[in-house]
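Field reference: sequence -> structure
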Amino acid sequence: MNIHLYQKTITEELISLLLTADPDPEALSGYIDDSQIVVGELDSMIVGVAVLHQSAELVELKNIAVLAGYQGRGYAKQLIREVKRLAKRTGAKALLVGTGNSSLSQLALYQKSGFRMYEIQAGYFDSYPSPIFENGIRCLDRVLLRADL
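Structure field:
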């Protein structure tokens, strides 16, 4: 997979992929414009995307998504490795990522990628327009994980 910073206009296709990881368009529009976008391409087709937002010595992985037909092949892990390299080059000391309490596969992915649980933000998803359910669990709380760089 070819991974690089995305320098083009944000397309509906890219937004659609990002919404698979964060289903709230309002939340997405709140961070997309002042963030860096990293894409993973296969044969010139975007199969994965990550959105990074930097503040001081921390970089937050705001969103990461891989097309459904390409999941389970290690592409998200490749994106995370590249995101860590990019964050470290900016002088960041740590990379943060948040996910829902019900996002069991994402929690496993992040921990396998070197993140440790850092904070629980109770009720974080209460303001989302529609309830989110994953793995038979209602997504209510945000689990924040941290990887020191």
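Note: The first strand starts at residue 2 and ends at 5.
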